[in-house]
Design the sequence.
């Protein structure tokens, strides 16, 4: 028995500690992965902000510079046209506006292109300065020596403008290459994070699956052990009830046979003593009569107690006759009227079923007498070919509240449930209308059903 209890305790050991460890590991994994994902997202944001976005803005400034240089190139082509309707000095305003716009664009581009090497920046600034020196020389010659001015455009300014335009074009190509490299890095980060997410989800699914399998296994072991304990409890209850019935039967038989015979013999002896020539008005005769009355009353009480402990009519006449005998007895003892309704034909009911049904009826009526404060009780019995139904209803105080001490500690209700369970049947305790209690028992009549 001790070994069995140890096995039950080991099987019923709570998996809480292992589940808490698993939960802690899972939460730690989620936290680590969340930090990793946030770090990758921050890196993506920084890469996109510091490289891609700045590079695109820088490209816009380079396009602005390129457009201004192309505009100056077109202006110089118009200045070389001999059929041009405007003199060379008329183009000075356009060159001045382009110069201001180019200086602003070069300043912004220098701020947006931190990756550009100092050599490239110095080259652009040097050639741009040389270009504007040549422009200043050009407009210094206009009006007084236009031929020399046009020669300066052909030999110097157009070459400088073309060189600057090619340099800006190369810078745009470099920006595109840098942007492509950055996009490739961003895509690689996205792919790596996506793979990590799939790995993390797979790990989480595996962890959840293993935890679920562990819970299923632990619950299965727990329920198996609980089923074993329930079987042991049912077996113990069956044995206790059997022992109780044997003891009650033995006490009933002892009261009926031993004490009943003794009291019967005492009554007979007192009757014979009374007849031995005593005068009618003798005080001793009166005392003998009084003693014989006490012996007879005690005998009746012992017989009544014997029937309550174990009615012999249950063994001799069966459950139906026992109920027919007990209900009037209950009325006489308690003063509570019993409305008895019976339907069906009573089959041969096994003794084990009969005694348990009789005990349930006894307990239900005793509870009604003690707690209901009702003056009438309804008992309904239905005999079927394979089932038996019993209902005991009162219109009294009703059931106590669920969870109250009387509901938790009432041994009578527990005993009735145990007897119904041993018979393989069901028992209900419900409210009968606004007030009152209804006890409904339904049991199979087959012997093997509750065995």
Sequence:
């Amino acid at each position: 028995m001790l070994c069995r209890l140890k096995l039950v305790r080991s099987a019923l050991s709570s998996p809480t500690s292992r589940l808490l460890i698993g939960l802690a590991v899972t939460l730690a994994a989620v936290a680590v992965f969340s930090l990793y994902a946030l770090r990758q997202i921050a890196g993506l944001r920084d890469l996109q902000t510091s490289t891609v976005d700045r590079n695109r803005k820088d490209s816009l400034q380079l396009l602005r510079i390129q457009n201004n240089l192309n505009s100056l190139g077109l202006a110089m082509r118009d200045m070389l046209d001999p059929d041009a309707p405007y003199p060379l000095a008329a183009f000075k305003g356009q060159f001045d506006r382009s110069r201001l716009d180019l200086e602003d664009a070069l300043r912004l581009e220098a701020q947006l292109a931190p990756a550009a090497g100092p050599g490239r920046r110095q080259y652009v600034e040097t050639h741009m300065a040389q270009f504007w020196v040549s422009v200043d020389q050009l407009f210094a010659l206009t009006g007084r020596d236009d031929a020399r001015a046009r020669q300066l455009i052909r030999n110097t300014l157009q070459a400088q403008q073309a060189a600057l335009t090619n340099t800006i074009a190369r810078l745009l190509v470099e920006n595109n290459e840098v942007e492509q490299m950055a996009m490739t890095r961003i895509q690689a980060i996205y792919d790596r994070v996506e793979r990590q997410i799939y790995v993390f989800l797979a790990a989480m699914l595996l962890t959840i699956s293993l935890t679920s399998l562990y819970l299923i296994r632990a619950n299965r072991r727990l329920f198996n052990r609980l089923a074993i304990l329930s079987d042991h409890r049912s077996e113990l209850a069956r044995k206790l009830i059997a022992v109780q019935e044997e003891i009650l039967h033995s006490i009933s038989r002892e009261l009926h046979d031993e004490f009943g015979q003794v009291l019967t013999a005492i009554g007979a002896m007192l009757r014979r003593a009374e007849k031995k020539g005593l005068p009618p008005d003798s005080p001793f005769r009166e005392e003998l009569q009084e003693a014989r009355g006490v012996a007879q009353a005690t005998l009746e009480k012992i017989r009544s107690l014997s029937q309550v402990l174990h009615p012999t009519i249950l063994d001799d006449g069966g459950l139906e006759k026992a109920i027919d005998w007990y209900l009037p007895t209950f009325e006489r003892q308690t003063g509570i009227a019993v409305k008895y309704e019976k339907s069906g034909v009573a089959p041969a009911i096994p003794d084990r079923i009969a005694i348990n049904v009789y005990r349930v009826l006894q307990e239900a009526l005793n509870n009604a007498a003690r707690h209901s404060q009702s003056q009438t009780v309804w008992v309904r019995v239905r005999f079927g070919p394979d089932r038996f139904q019993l209902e005991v209803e009162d219109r009294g105080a009703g059931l106590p509240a669920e969870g109250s001490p009387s509901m938790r500690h009432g041994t009578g209700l527990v005993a009735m449930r145990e007897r119904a369970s041993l018979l393989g049947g069901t028992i209900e305790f419900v409210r009968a209308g606004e007030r009152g209690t209804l006890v409904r028992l339904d049991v199979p009549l087959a012997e093997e059903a509750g065995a």
Observations:
- The beta strands are 337-343, 376-383, 387-394, 426-431, 437-444.
